[in-house]
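[INFO] parsing input record for D-2-hydroxyglutarate dehydrogenase
[DEBUG] input buffer:
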Amino acid sequence: MIPEAIIETLKTLVDADKVRTDSASLDTWGRDWTKQFEPAPLAIVFPKSTEQVQAVVRFANEHKLALTPSGGRTGLSAAAVAANGEIVVSFDYMNQILDFNPYDRTVTCQPGVVTAQLQQYAEDQGLYYPVDFASAGSSQIGGNIGTNAGGIKVIRYGMTRNWVAGLKVVTGAGELLELNKGLVKNATGYDLRQLFIGAEGTLGFVVEATMRLERAPKNLTAMVLGTPDFDSIMPVLHAFQGKLDLTAFEFFSDKAMGKIMARGDVPAPFATDCPFYALLEFEAVSEDIANQALETFEHCVEQRWVLDGVMSQSEQQLQNLWKLREFISETISHWTPYKNDISVTISQVPAFLRDIDAIVGEHYPDFEIVWFGHIGDGNLHLNILKPDAMPKEEFFAKCASVNQWVFDIVKRYNGSISAEHGMGMTKRDYLGYSRSPEEIAVMKAVKAVFDPNGIMNPGKIFPD
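[DEBUG] output buffer:
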């Protein structure tokens, strides 16, 4: 079909005013937070119901038109970028919370519900949705499921996968599947729900999700600790885990701290300058637990693992300490960072970081590197900042060389080239570093079952 006919047909499948082709809309809904690929979608459609999603998918199948899902567009791997004439399916108007069951502690919602909206809804019910990260105010539940989002609470609560009780999905063939139906126990064969979690929209679209909730944590308390080197962070983690049930354990480098301090809107936690910092959080539900935290801090100082530290004494101070970590991504975005989201087993983290730091520093000593991440689950974020004078194209070309070296190290450590951001166009060519040829063949076969015509977000996990 010619583009004009496609647009007119789309207007009959969704509300006529829910199809956009103006350049501003194509640019806005055709991209995510990455800056490596320019968006070039054919059109943006905004379905308001499952039936409309099915109609769009069936039409796309009939005419072999590629579809790309769009949620909060906060992704960091270009999985939601439509760069090759795709039709973008935005879930902005499928944004309702549909049901709440206090006995099962579940809430059923549409995919366009914003993460913070679900968190607030849970809080209003006296409960807690624990998957949390800096983009919670704009990311959407459908996108979180599509990438199996992790964030800052994984050490205690796990990934998004742990909180999905049931899904309704429209497959690449336009079929509607209801998966698991909110059950805690269900031993009736393959759990197809798990295939759609982390699939980045390549098997089908989530149109409804039943999410589990948890009891609300009590008296959350944070500590920021400065360490003399990265190696000291691991015994600090071990010491605190031996005494407390941590809800988070994050780290960031002095360069990350420097960028935050330069903003001027977050107070320094203490006066001592340190090469690395750890931020940990726990529930101080009693004076004994708070005292255990302070005693463990003193032990770490005696062992010279910690140079200085502070513990929050109020809700405001808790928020300020968290800003030191959560503001990093937004702050360094000015430098067009090239991001690597990598992971290994926790015990390997120090040696792994040293190897990567050395190889990048050797080949590109002029590049500024900002490290931070979820050290409690082995997830490191390597951010290479673009020099102001270097053109974007040249910078990304140099970073492609960095990828080869970094991923060689990841493979040597049996790690993952994408811990929580997904594959997308930025990682698809490197899938073989984390998956065997046999695994990739099975993954492609699974995709063919659910998406026989290959229309669902093509080129986002497998190379073209």
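[INFO] The longest strand covers residues 204-212.
[INFO] shutting down worker
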